[in-house]
Structure formats: C-alpha cells, structure tokens
Amino acid sequence: MNNITQITSEHVTKHGLPAHVFKDSGLYEQESDKVFAAGWASIGCAQQLEKPGDILPVRIAGQSLIIVKNREGEIGVFHNVCRHKAAPLVDEPCNKRSMVCPYHKWSFKIDGSLLSAPRYFGNDNKPMSEEDKADKGLIKVRFAVWWDIIFVNIDGNAQPFDEFIAPLDELLTDHNPDNIKKISTTDYSGEVNWKLAVDNFLDGYHVPFVHSQACSLDAILDQEDLFVSDNIVGLRLVNGASAKPAKTAKQLPHFDNLPEAKKGAQQWFGIFPNTLFFVDPCWVQTIVVKPMGATTTDESLSIYVVNDEAASDEFKLERERLNEVLNEVNEQDIELLDKLQITRTNEIANQGHLVPAWDQINMSFQQMWLKKMQG
C-alpha cells in the first residue's frame, strides 16, 4: 500500500494509517503543499518576541519565515527571502533595527519595506525613489495570533481564521486568554515523523502508563472525546486537574472568573495539522510541531500561567515546578517516539488494531490527514 490513493477510510478506522506514510519522503513533500501551505499551521508564540525589534526565524514544511515585532509592539510574519535573489535574511533569533541581506546588502525595515539597495542603478549612483522601492519589500504571510499562538496560512486561500477557530473559542468561552503569561519555551528535536508526535499527544490511553507523575489510571478512565470541528479534536478529563504541582506548598491561581464546576477539568486539543494545545484550570501548554523532514520533527513547548497573580514572585516555586513536570513529560514522549518511529514504520504495524474505547480521537486526526492528502 504505497500509493496514497489506495488508502481507504475503512483501513484507517480499523488499523490507523499505513506504515509507509510515516517515513515516505515523497509524501512529506506533498504534505508541504496539501496540508501545511493550504491550512492554518502554527509557527511559534507571540510572547517569544519580548521587545520591539525582536526577530524569530522559523521553518515549517519547506518554508523559511521570520516573525518580527515592530516598534509599536505588533507582530508581523514574512517570508525569510530577500527580494533580489532570494537569499535568507536571518539565521538566528536576534534584535535589530533593520535586516540586511548577506548576499548583496539589500536592507529592509522591521515592517518589511525595502530600506536601501546599494548602487541599485549601477554607475548612475542616484538614490532609489519610494516608487522604486514599493514593490520590493518582503513578502507578507497571512497570519493570526490566538491564545498567543501564531498561525500562518501560506497559500492565502484558507477560510478566515476566526471561522476556523470559532468552534474551539465557543468551547473555551469560560477561559479568558487575555492575561496568560509565558513562563518558558523549550525546543525539542526528535527522529520521528510529525504525525506520530501529534498522534501521541492525542492518545490519552498512554498517559497513566508513561507519565504516572501526571495522571492516574482512574482519572483517565473518565476521558471524554471532543469532536470540535472538521479540523479540531480533543479530550477532556472532568476531574483530571491536580490540586497543585507535585512537591509544592500551594496551588497556582485559576483562570479569572472560571466557574466552580470547571475548576477540576483538563482539556487538550489537536488543531490540524500541527498545533497541540492543553488547557488546565491553572495553566496552559502549547506545542508547535515543526516537520523538518519525513522522519525528523522539531517542537517548541511553551508553558503559561493564567493571570498576573500567578506570574508574581509569590508563586515562583510553583511555576518552576510546573515547568519541570511538563518538560519531564515531553522528554518522556520524545524518548518513546524515537523508538516508535522504527517500529511503527515497519509493514508489520499494518496489522495493528485501533481500540474503540480509546482511539477515536487518534483515528479522527488520521482521517483528517487522509482527507486533505486525497483531496
């Protein structure tokens, strides 16, 4: 079963996607266009850029982009490509007043407009007019910021982001994202296909066995599947929240004005294709999954507390412990996924069986992928 057109929905329902889709380099190239460029993919978090002039280069499925923060504190996203001969402008996170191409020294303002191009007219050393510069600025990328996550639509043809995310906004109406404060961002790299990383996040079944420090088997037995939209699925544990991070004296503050009935619930979501989003009554976690190749994936894990009180000195120990626990969980997953990449890509894996009691959300995510790729 090496042809994408031969994969049936029925096979995915019973056995999951076939083994070859987690290692085939040709399919990875197709994903760049059909999945990542055509939809709303995440590339980072706005609070990673702390000061005006901060620039963050990112790669996503073959695209080189830069996120910038201008003098007014506004976020912008551009292709990391000089408008002369397409050289990359920025290689590392930095803070600059302007960006200078290393190839021919064309320079660009933080807002993407062309600042100058040395000796543009050759021997006629006249300055460039604003009209000359007008069509030579950096190419903008359509983007949106939601819960501090930066989403891009590279081909520009996806539905409006507000419509795309509306079902999840409605589900989270009691959780106010306006005051969330980032406490850390940690980058990871794994020798694994990106789809396995997403699938693992949406697998509640493994949590009490791999991450016993985070969840008990009794808690996960109350798992509720959430089919939010054609692009968003998730899980809910009504009583899954811990009273406080392990080994700390007190509990982090809850979301402001959160109803009492929701102060025990944890919810986590996969926003197709690559955004992983976890909402606890006292903290938020996002993972931006960045495919680097058919069998290599980077991740950026960001952790937030939910208001100014939780970000104060009073809760420093609790924030540190939360950061420690959540990164420990992700490290355990990376170790497991590197091993799973070897076995899940073997043809023998096609004889596996999804379990109706546990794997409906994973199956749904894989069906999303199949629909996008065959469409």
List the helices and strands and how they pair.
Layout: H1 9-15, H2 25-37, E1 41-45, E2 54-60, E3 63-69, E4 75-79, E5 94-95, E6 98-100, E7 107-109, E8 114-116, H3 130-133, E9 142-146, E10 149-153, H4 161-171, E11 181-190, H5 194-201, H6 207-210, H7 217-220, E12 224-227, E13 232-237, E14 266-271, E15 275-279, E16 283-293, E17 296-305, H8 316-344, H9 360-374
Antiparallel strand pairs: 1-10, 2-3, 2-5, 3-4, 6-7, 7-8, 9-10, 11-17, 12-13, 13-14, 14-15, 15-16, 16-17
Organism: Marinomonas balearica
GO molecular function, one term: iron ion binding
Cofactor: Fe cation
**Gross morphology:** globular
Question: Main beta sheet, described?
Answer: 7 strands, antiparallel
CATH class of the largest domain: Alpha Beta
Distance between the termini: 18 Å
Rg is 22 Å
Mean pLDDT: 94
The CATH superfamily of the largest domain is Naphthalene 1,2-dioxygenase Alpha Subunit, Chain A, domain 1
Helix content percent band: 25-40%
Number of E-state strands: 17
Spatially, the strands of the biggest sheet line up as 11-17-16-15-14-13-12
| Backbone structural class | alpha+beta
- Tally of discrete structural domains: 2
CATH fold description of the largest domain? Naphthalene 1,2-dioxygenase Alpha Subunit, Chain A, domain 1
Order of helices and strands: HHEEEEEEEEHEEHEHHHEEEEEEHH
Q: Uncertain runs with pLDDT below 50, 5 residues or more? A: none
> Given the structure, what is the number of helices?
9
CATH architecture designation of the largest domain: Alpha-Beta Complex
